[in-house]
Write a structure and sequence with these properties.
The protein has about 220 residues and is mainly alpha-helical. The chain contains seven helices and no strands.
């Protein structure tokens, strides 16, 4: 590692990576076939996206090598062990249909939104009917006043229910974004990242050993 090589790269929390890898290894070890809960698939995807910028991890390791080499060595040892386990088991993910998992998640929330929208339509239709009727009633008549009250009540009921539909749509948008992370994931992505991290862990340990022996300036 060359000091200062990635000084301008934002740091990731290198100290958290081993714990995240333990979670990932638990998910992979439990995987059997193509079935996987969405939240587990998302955990795999988020791990990849959170740590695929290995330059940032190297930058943090460089800083820790000076500030706390003992802690860095513990992290590197754990990182080496956890990535080795992941590389050994990554084949379990080969049949996982991440695109299918993502599509099912997005479709589930889209269906809920569509149903909510359909339930809202009659309330909007009722308001429109009453509002149109007002155009044909004598202004100031009792019938006009009564219809106006009904129209206002219909509008208020529609608006109340529309608020709920908007909340459901916001949930659909949020879940679609999360599903997008899973949709793009492949087992090969995780394999490549695990291999990189394994190599980084090995380099860290080698550099720390040299520092202990006084071989590094």
């Amino acid at each position: 590692m060359s000091p200062g090589l990635y000084d301008n790269v934002p740091m990731k929390k290198l100290i958290d990576i081993a714990d995240r890898l333990k979670e990932i290894n638990g998910i992979v070890a439990a995987c059997n076939g193509d079935a996987m809960p969405f939240e587990q698939a998302l955990a795999l995807a988020r791990f990849y996206y959170d740590f695929h910028n290995t330059n940032a991890l190297i930058a943090e390791a460089e800083a820790m090598a000076t500030e706390n080499p003992a802690e860095l060595k513990e992290i590197a040892l754990s990182l080496k062990a956890e990535t080795s386990t992941l590389l050994d088991n990554i084949g379990r993910l080969e049949d996982v249909d991440f695109k299918g998992i993502a599509n099912a998640r997005s479709r589930k929330f889209h269906d809920v939104f569509q149903e909510a929208s359909a339930r809202l339509n009659p309330y909007w239709k009722r308001y429109c009917e009453l509002n149109t009727r007002l155009d044909y009633l004598p202004l100031g008549s009792d019938e006009y006043a009564e219809t106006e009250k009904e129209c206002e009540a219909a509008k208020a009921e529609h608006d109340r229910r529309q608020t709920d539909v908007r909340r459901i749509y916001a949930e659909y948008e949020r879940e679609s974004r999360r599903a997008g992370d899973v949709f793009s994931l492949k087992a090969s992505h995780l394999y490549a990242l695990a291999a990189k991290l394994n190599g980084i862990a090995g380099s860290i340990m080698t550099d720390l050993d040299r520092m202990e022996k006084g071989e590094c300036q």
